[in-house]
Amino acid sequence: MSHHLTMSHLAQRRDLSDPRLIVDFARTCSDRENLRNLFLLTFADIRASSPGAWTEWKGQLLRELFERTSEFLETGSDDPQVALEQIEARVERRQDAARGELRGLGVGDSKIQAFFDVMPRRYYIAHSARQIARHALLLLSYTEERLFSTAVRTLPGDVTELLFCSKDVHGLYSMVAGVLSAKGLNILGSHVYTTRSGLALEVYRVTTPVGGPEEQRETWKAVEAMLSAVLTRTVRVEDLLRRRRRVAAPAAPMPRPPAVEITNDESDFYTIVDVSADDRLGLLYDLTSTIAAEGLEIYISKAATVMDQVADTFYLKDEERKKVSDPERLERLRQRLLEAAARETPGG
Question: If one looks up domain 259-342 in CATH, what number appears?
């Protein structure tokens, strides 16, 4: 088994709703027995690397990749169209199940269908029926009189889910990510969606705030206050990050230069950017604000920890919602991200 690092990489740093990824990984495994053995080896390798390396979050990602690949291998096909058909069937099942959840909560069919109609197709692959129902409740409750709406839910494994809904504006992800970083909340992963009606629905998995329930409630109140200040342009994210005492993350024992890799070959729809760098306060904000400054939009963001470095992955499109194809623009983006990752102070 020489692909256990591949499985870990795909689970933690790639979009598991992409049928092409599932097909390619199924070809690598060739059959369900190899897939099962690879899953067990990957699990053992992560657990053995360090006491805190394995988390419930990583386990969930690995299981998701395992289940989707196993489902495809079970068909005995090597046809990407079969994977696409499986995805379409999964979308229908998710919508039917979510419809049942929402009806049970008293939501009318017209509102349910209105939510289904404005969400992109890939949304239904990335979330369970119960998650879709929670997201729908938040989005349907949003009104233009409100600056934004949020919902918070604690998950197993020291992970908390934050839902955020607002009018979509360029660089919104960077603002929210900056606020979370300024409050000391480590972003484990996120999905960013723009509805056909012009709203942004952002789903974050972050480390659970320290303290008991009351302290955590106060943390989230502070996050909302900071979001209000940033979105109304009364406070800059850079200022919030500079005010925070830099005690959350110790300096890497053996600092290494950052690395940036950009590819247009792994996805049919997105330019994928991988950044590896020593962790520090404001790193994610500096990276995402750099991407926004280049006029690009982030559709998916994933984060992983590799030894003593953070590995951030971004799925991007340009102003015309296409992959970034201009070589000069790609090289400029790479250089600017390297500069951002190498900064010693947030927003510096």
Answer: 3.30.70.260
